[in-house]
């Protein structure tokens, strides 16, 4: 089973809230749907460290805030080090090409945005309302994993449970 982290990076502009999306650039996979920044956690890597690393590699941005990061607890003894955190939401694949489990985190980031990153291209900001309309009209295709995360985020905005970032 693969363990992954995914970033829902948002920013507020005078025209409304925007979210960062990118196209997957792995030709051997056969398609290049949109996705959220993120990827596989390395052995014994903190989920937060993996998130910061993946966002930098794929987008060029530096993560400046992860919602609920202040609630993080780390315990350590002679033979272990364990981290307890509060992600925005979790996913588990119940069927599909890869057995995986992952966490989505609401983030703010800054810096110069890459147009093409590590296995990504067309890294771009899109207005949340525009994304919602494109999804409703089925005019945009997301990866099989991130479709659920994006829809969960949009629902949280509808119900007021995400508080923006």
From TrEMBL:
Keyword vocabulary terms for this entry: Hydrolase
PROSITE patterns: NUDIX, NUDIX_BOX
SUPFAM superfamilies from the UniProt entry: Nudix
InterPro entries associated with the record: Nudix_hydrolase, NUDIX_hydrolase-like_dom_sf, NUDIX_hydrolase_CS, NUDIX_hydrolase_dom
One Pfam family hit: NUDIX
Domain annotation Nudix hydrolase: ranges: 1-152
PANTHER family in alphabetical order: ADP-RIBOSE PYROPHOSPHATASE, DIHYDRONEOPTERIN TRIPHOSPHATE DIPHOSPHATASE
Family assignment from sequence similarity: Belongs to the Nudix hydrolase family.
Identification of the protein by name: NUDIX domain-containing protein
Organism lineage: Bacteria, Bacillati, Bacillota, Bacilli, Bacillales
